[in-house]
Amino acid sequence: MSLTPIPSSHKPFNRSAYFHLPLALGLLATVYIHPALAASETAPTTTQTTQSSDLNSSDSLDNQQFQACLDELAQSDAFASVQTTFNQYRPMTADPSVIKALNYQPEFRKQPWDYLASLVDLERVNDGIAASERYADILQGIEEQYGVNRYDVLGVWGVESDFGTKLGQKDVINSLATLSCFDRRQSYFRGEYASALKILQNGDINAEDFKGSWAGAFGQTQFMPATFLELAQDFDGDGRKDLVNSQADALASTANFLKKRGYQANQPWGYEVRLPADLEASSDRKNKQPMSHWRSLGITLPDGRPLPDDLAQAGLLLPAGAEGPAFLVGRNFDAFYAYNASENYALAIGHLSQLIAQKSNQVSFATPWPTDDPGLSRKQSREVQQALHDLGYDIGEVDGFIGDGTRKAIQQYQTDNNLEADGKAGQKIYQHLMQAVEKLPNRQSPAAISDDASQMSAPTQTASGASDGQNIDGSSPENEDSSASSSRLLPSKGVMAIIISLLILLSIILVNKFKRPKP
Questions:
Q1: Which residues, 6+ apart, have CB-to-CB distance to 349 below 8 Å?
Q2: Is residue 74 classed as helix, strand or coil in its secondary structure?
Q3: Is residue 98 within 8 Å of residue 92, measured between CB atoms?
Q4: Which residues does 428 contact at the CB level (< 8 Å), separation at least 6?
Q5: How far apart are the C-alpha atoms of 366 and 274, rounded to whole Å?
Q6: Do 442 and 8 contact (CB within 8 A), yes or no?
Q7: Lowest mean pLDDT: which of 31-45, 53-67, 135-149, 495-509?
Q8: Can you give the pLDDT at residue 104?
Q9: Short-list 346, 380, 318, 328, CA closest to 469
Q10: CB–CB of 299/271 below 8 Å?
Q11: pTM of the full predicted structure?
């Protein structure tokens, strides 16, 4: 196609410049939004469950298959005694997030010192001391009736739900129905589903209160439904075993669980000890030996005093090997372990209970962990999250739970600052971040912000507890970051995509405006 000459009254049209305008504006927008994109890509939004994990709730399960499965369950013998309740609370759709949680594999392994630091910190100890005073009469009655030390009951309560403040938000019936029809362990979850329906049928828990973990654990001390039917107690005498709203029922039920799992009255769970430097020892808590055996090996209390005689037998526990803290643990430690099959979990309960009993603020063990990068308390974890947020990294909600989202943001920060990109949330990255944010202008301190966040999130039953590894009750793996909106400092990818599109559209309009008309 030929073009007519340009009239002399018009200035020459620089076609190349205008056709490059979209590219220039697009590059300019990309440079502007790059930090926001980087941050959002390294910290995907997650869904909060008992133990939060990055679950995509938009994923769907075959509803026709789900309803066919429920039809089959309704005709089975296991659900015959709860048929009316089954029909009344039959879910309309499955919950795909619980299947994601079932198969979730954490990207970062949590070391014992990280796990203990997050579960046994000064905040939780102080809350436990306050709870011991607030519920002193109930706890005394529980001690007398079940023979379980009140502080051990408080230890379970504190670790499981932070003293009743974090109970989980998943609909127990929907979760268990979904797990009964999809993926692995269906037989186990069908038994729990039938048990959950029986709880509703008996009237112990109101349907609107029947919320908990993705796996169906619920209440202030997170019982699975079958365990509830076996061991739950009506300690306040109102005719209902209400582990959600009654502290008395929940704590008595916990004491009953421990008693039935071999708890020994008037015995400690164990204690920290000191090993001789030349002792070649391995961790084997199941190898119970009399205290005379351990004395003969030169093992003492941390301060050098001889081992007491208040344990008939004990096994040696070395959570981090012979170079770290060492413990002799008895039958009551094994009862803690029965609550959730994790030695770190059981140690957290024992350590927390001991600190509450002693009203101690010394949360560290006598022997330090074998690391140059100790773990963070929840307060320090909130400060790390707040610092990352203020520096432009989207970690989601500042909640004190260090999960994969926060670790990925840490990893990106480490990369950006030429640090080893291991994603570890420990004292090293804490100190580095605190120094970095001090240089930001007009900024409130991380400690003040994290304290505010803690006070705002504490009193409601809107979150969930956590544990390391797959719980014996089926509950979720380690704590993960809660779901949250995009960073308040940086625009979201959706908004920026619109801005880019508008800029390109504007440049195209400008190009067309300056094109010469056809002859």
A1: 152, 155, 156, 159, 269, 336, 339
A2: helix
A3: no
A4: 372, 373
A5: 9
A6: no
A7: 31-45
A8: 87
A9: 346
A10: no
A11: 0.76
| Residue carrying the six token digits 């430690």 | 333
Check: CB of residue 42 under 8 Å from CB of residue 411.
Answer: yes
pLDDT tens digits, one per residue of 323-337: 999 999 999 999 999
User: Could you tell me the sign of the dihedral formed by the alpha carbons of 84, 85, 88, 94, in that order?
Assistant: negative
Residue 499 burial (CB count, 10 A) = 14
**Which residues are paired to 271 by β-bridges?**
328
Tally of residues, the chain: 519
Task: Measure CA of the first residue to CA of the last residue in the chain; give whole Å.
Answer: 10
Report how far apart, in Å, the C-alpha atoms of 144 and of each of 149, 266, 328, 371, 376 are. 9, 11, 27, 42, 37
Read off the tokens for 237: 């005498």
Q: Are 402 and 376 in contact (CB under 8 A)?
A: yes
Q: Own/partner pairs for 58-66, CB < 8 Å, 24+ apart?
A: 59/96, 59/100, 60/96, 61/93, 61/94, 61/96, 61/99, 61/178, 61/182, 63/93, 63/94, 65/181, 66/91, 66/93, 66/94, 66/177, 66/178, 66/181, 66/182
Q: Is 22 exposed, middle or buried (0-12, 13-18, 19+ CB in 10 A)?
A: middle
262 C-beta neighbours (distance < 10 Å), count: 11
Do residues 436 and 310 make contact, with C-beta atoms less than 8 angstroms apart?
A: no
What does the pLDDT look like over 419-436, one tens digit per residue? 999 999 999 999 999 999
Rg of the chain over all Cα atoms, to the nearest angstrom: 29
Using alpha carbons, list the distances in angstroms from residue 193 to 102, 173, 394, 439, 478: 16, 7, 38, 54, 24
Answer for the pair 447, 382: CB distance below 8 angstroms, yes or no: no
Which has the closest alpha carbon to 412: 467, 487, 496, 488? Answer: 487
The tokens for 182 are 């999809």
Helix/strand/coil (H, E, C) string of 319-371? ECECCCCEEEECHHHHHHHHHCCCHHHHHHHHHHHHHHHHCCCCCCCCCCCCC
- The least confident of 157-171, 280-294, 400-414, 438-452 is 438-452
Q: Does residue 399 sit in helix, strand or coil?
A: coil
Distance CA(323)–CA(275), nearest Å, equals: 9
DSSP-based helix, strand, coil % in the chain, nearest 5: 50, 5, 45
380-410: b (≥16 Cβ within 10 Å) or e: bbbbbbbbbbbbbbbbbbbbbbbbbbbbbbb
Distance, CA of 497 to CA of 30 (rounded, Å) = 9
Measuring CA to CA, which residue among 323, 355, 350 is closest to residue 335?
A: 350
Alpha-carbon gap, residue 74 to 431, rounded angstroms = 57
Residue pair 55/49 in contact by the 8 Å Cβ criterion: yes
